[in-house]
Amino acid sequence: MPIKSIDPRITRANIEIQNKETSKENKVLEKLDHWQTYEVFAQNKRGEHYSHVGSLHAPNPEMAWILAKEQFGRRNKITGIWITKTSDIFSVTENEEEMFELNSEKIYREAGGYKVMDRINKFKKENKKISEK
Amino acid sequence: MNVNEYKYNSHTEMSDELTSGVKDLLFKMADDELILGHRNSEWTGLGPILEEDIAFSSMAQDKLGQAQAIYNLLNQMGEQDADTLAFTRNENEYKCCHFVEYPIGEYDFSLMRHFLFDAAEALRYNSLLNSSYKPLSDLAKKFRGELRYHTLHSEVWIEQLSRATEESKARMQSALNECMPLALGIFEPSKYDDLLLQEGVFTGEENLKSGWYEHIQNILTNSGLKVPDLSSITPSFGGRNGYHTEYLKPLLDEMCEVYKIDPEAEW
């Protein structure tokens, strides 16, 4: 069966999309009747970052919230949910990927460039010796 | 509430009459949850959209969990274990109301039942938070979060569909009209109501019904539906005394089929 729309109701209910004139009665879908996709972000613990957990279909944010709660909150406890229309997200495509590349000569800019762990470990070791004495 | 503030921390402190009254209440509640949980699970895989299918199935599972917790409490009060109570009783020993027995019908009926039933259920547990019988108050606390979600889910759907197209509004109105006599069957009076109220265990079906009617009337009216007048409806009574509709027996046969093949099996 060809997929007519990302709105799951349309293919399933066999609703005609294209032409209102040639379709029968009220089985016609207006453009705005299409459900949108929403992106869902969940927080696992108070104070933590919200992480993207998935997306779902819904006609409005309220419906998206009641559906998201069971999609993404039934397996483990979460402390919060953010929901936004997928279309409201400004995203950068793969075409722009080369802009993300880092210059290997500027290693000091990368977090891994700070070589302090050996000094921290040395400090901890010495501190331990002192407290043991 | 502090432990010492409960009049009854255990059923052993109650009179026999009161114990019978509490058990009657618990059987009604557990059987409603079990049968409606089973009914709603029939939508699994058939829900209108994937996301709703998952949400509705998940709530059906919550209902089975609630039934199990109540049967466990009955077990502590001297009744048989949860599985035996759920799967081996005769039809006339179940105390569920007719409302939960009805087939799932179309989604408008199932949603309207979900809304009307869960509103009553949430108010019932809410009143039980203040029960003088500690185990009941504990149960009410345990289910509070689940019930908040169930009622929110049903309210959002009802508002959404009642305000959408002419067809959806007409279908919700017709589902409401069909559901009302059945929904009133939830509140079938019990001979123990006065005693339970007097002892502070439970507010009683009549009080619950008044609060429920006011609550659903607000939401339904705001959604543009016309709520039938209570005096114009004959409630579907009988379930609480073991007189059931033709729909319960086939449901029980199906639900208990696997259990009865080998009641000793470990799951």
Name its key features.
heterodimer, A: 133 residues, alpha+beta, Ubiquitin-like (UB roll), 2 domains, three-stranded antiparallel sheet, 3 helices, 26% helix, 17% strand, elongated, B: 267 residues, mainly alpha, Ferritin, 10 helices, 64% helix, globular
Which blocks of ≥5 consecutive residues of chain B have pLDDT under 50?
none
The CATH topology label of chain B is Ferritin
Major β-sheet of chain B, in short?
none
| Beta-strand fraction estimate of chain A | 15-25%
Anisotropy-based shape of chain B: globular
Q: Note the gap between the termini of chain B.
A: 37 Å
Tally of DSSP β-strands of chain B: 0
Question: Which whole number gives the mean pLDDT of chain B?
Answer: 95
Number of helices of chain B: 10
Number of domains of chain A: 2
Side-by-side strand order of the widest sheet of chain A: 2-1-3
Under the CATH scheme, the architecture of chain B is Up-down Bundle
Shape of chain A: elongated
| Proportion in helices of chain B | 55-70%
- Gyration radius of chain B (Cα, Å) is 18 Å
Radius of gyration of chain A: 26 Å
What's the layout of helices and strands?
The complex is a heterodimer of chains A (133) and B (267).
Chain A: H1 8-12, E1 36-43, E2 51-58, H2 61-73, E3 80-85, H3 117-132
Antiparallel strand pairs in A: 1-2, 1-3
Chain B: H1 16-41, H2 50-76, H3 82-87, H4 98-101, H5 107-128, H6 134-162, H7 166-184, H8 193-198, H9 205-222, H10 248-261
Helix pairs in contact in B: 1-2, 2-6, 5-6, 5-7, 5-9
